[in-house]
Specification:
Blueprint lengths: L2 H13 L1 H21 L1 H5 L7 E7 L9 H10 L2 E5 L7 H6 L5 E5 L4 E5 L4 H30 L25 H15 L5 H11 L1 H6 L5 H31 L6 H26 L2 H19 L12 H4 L3 H15 L5 H29 L2
Parallel strand pairs: 1-2, 1-3
Antiparallel strand pairs: 3-4
Helix pairs in contact: 1-10, 2-7, 2-10, 7-10, 7-14, 10-11, 11-12, 11-14, 11-15, 12-14, 14-15
Length: about 375
Amino acid sequence: MPFILIKNNIKLMLRNKIILVVMAVLPVIIIALLSNVFGDLLSGDYSASDFTCGYQIEEGSDYNDFKEQLEDVLDENGITLKSYDYDYCDYEDGFNNGEFDVIVKIGKESYTIYRDENKLTEAAIAEYIFSNYFEQHNNQVNIMTQMFEQGLAELKDNNSTVKSEKIDADKVPDAINYYGIVYVIFFSWCTPIVTAVVISSERVNRITKRFNISPMSRRSFYLGKLIPSVCAGIVLTAISMLVSTLVFDIQWGNYLQTIAVLVLQIIACNALGIVIFYLFNNNAISIALLWMMYMFFGLVGGTFATYMYSGMSETVLRFSPIYYENRTLIEFATKGMSEYRDTCIFYLVAIFLVCTLIGMLLMNKRMESEV
């Protein structure tokens, strides 16, 4: 094992303290900014509590005989039905004084829902319940009328019932937790940038030629770069993760699996970074290409726009390993488990294996060319 090489490369990385500080602190700053700017987007309450519905029933309407049934249906759904006897021009007063959240005017053959612009959720719920109730009621009346006309049954009242069910949907994280997690992930993908210091030092000091005459194997030479890069990435990610957790009280959910995924991701992205550095043999081009690649992964994967509200197709999302990692760690935080975990791990392992193979081939070729 190339312990001396690993130690020397770690020392080289530690020399550029500015990059290390920026990589550790920048995620915390961005988390603070974005969580404040987009806090309302993720923290908004889209559910509705119990509310009051005002109603008017036109004189002579058949629905007037079923008012008690309608009251029972609405009561089961947390809606209080209250008579409203004012004219149309006074509806606004009913909203402004807080007496009603929704007002329904029931005619002989139709009904109209008047809604407050600040109570759109309540209006949607009321519209759903009323439309279902009247549809069921009209269907039953028509069936019973036909059966009565055919002498098959006596015409009598039937209680139509409409009930709502609460579905345990996935919990949406608040802005602090969402951006706290995704930006720790994003900047951990950027940690291979610190490897540029080692690559640059090798070229300046012609270290590669020296290793050609040493007994060190090509695998040891590769590990001498990968291991320090991974160690630096783990330390930088751990610092940003710890600081953001202490400052913003970010909830990571399943800590063991979260840490395991992050470590695997750091190994994979550093293997990818080594491939890019040796492929182009130019630090500026390599860093620019890595940055553009991570920007694409982040744009598609929910770093800059939340993946919950993304309009991109599933086919496009599959191109971003950050998408699977974001979903996995966000669901760890909100549910304690994730259906995307196995896909995420497979993706990261595949990146590591493929990039390790290509990286060693490129390194061997580069060393042979400098003999």
